[in-house]
Design goal:
Number of strands: 6
Number of helices: 2
CATH superfamily: Nucleotide cyclase, GGDEF domain
Helix content: 10-25%
CATH topology: Alpha-Beta Plaits
Radius of gyration: 17 Å
Strand content: 35-45%
CATH architecture: 2-Layer Sandwich
Number of domains: 1
CATH class: Alpha Beta
């Protein structure tokens, strides 16, 4: 997602977009809501925590929780590299160990 998104410059001024992505793992509730206009949405603590990772992240980076790394067994995936960001105060969660996820260039 970070590598493949390109905006055609068909505007009178240059546009520079930077994406922030946040990942966490856990239980969610999901469903379709609406009567006239339908929307699919997800709710739960895992969604809120992923949102906090996104909002506390940096443009062009994927910010993940330590729980995400352990839940998916990601520390065993060779093409991935986790850069320790350190402990952060996360609203509603307290202090959390967080990391930036990067693709390893040693493939």
């Amino acid at each position: 997602m970070l590598e493949g998104f390109i905006i055609e410059q068909k505007f009178s001024f240059p546009i520079d977009l930077g994406f922030r992505i946040g990942l966490h793992s856990g239980s969610v509730v999901a469903g379709v809501i609406g009567e006239n206009k339908y929307s699919y949405d997800m709710w739960g603590d895992a969604v809120n925590t992923a949102s906090r990772m996104e909002s506390h992240g940096e443009a062009g980076k994927i910010h993940v929780t330590e729980e995400f790394i352990h839940a998916v067994g990601a520390e065993n995936f060779l093409p991935l590299r986790f850069i320790r960001r350190g402990e952060m105060e996360i609203k509603g969660k307290g202090m959390m160990k967080t990391y930036f996820l990067e693709q390893s260039h040693n493939l």
